[in-house]
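Hi team, as promised in this morning's meeting, here are the two structures we talked about. I've kept the exact order from the run log so nobody has to guess. The first one is mostly here for context; it's the second one we should focus on when we meet again. Sequence first, then the predicted structure tokens.
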Amino acid sequence: MRAILITTLLLITAVLLYTAIAEGDGGMNSQVNGVGEAISDHIRRMSP
């Protein structure tokens, strides 16, 4: 479980860095919103 969480956080960090460098502010804002939605959906599914 801990390994999955660490891997997910590293993947999110890599995506955010890529969007910050390659797409600028507009792309980064949309990516942050998408990642936030994905994380919240995942947490809701994990909660009993």
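And here is the second protein, the one for discussion:
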Amino acid sequence: MNTGDLIFQLLMFMIIFCIFFAVFFLVRSLVAKKPDRSKNIEEKLDRIIELLEKDKGE
């Protein structure tokens, strides 16, 4: 095997490896953001419920 062939194969494996990692981290970051949004919405709804209960009691 030629030295140039070996270097080319190593570079191609590294590029493929990097692509898989990029896709993995992209999917992970998109999935990880959903609980933050739902938590934020839940906190807002709790606040609205508290305000409605406060108005109802007066």
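Starting points for discussion:
The mean pLDDT is 87.
The radius of gyration is 26 Å.
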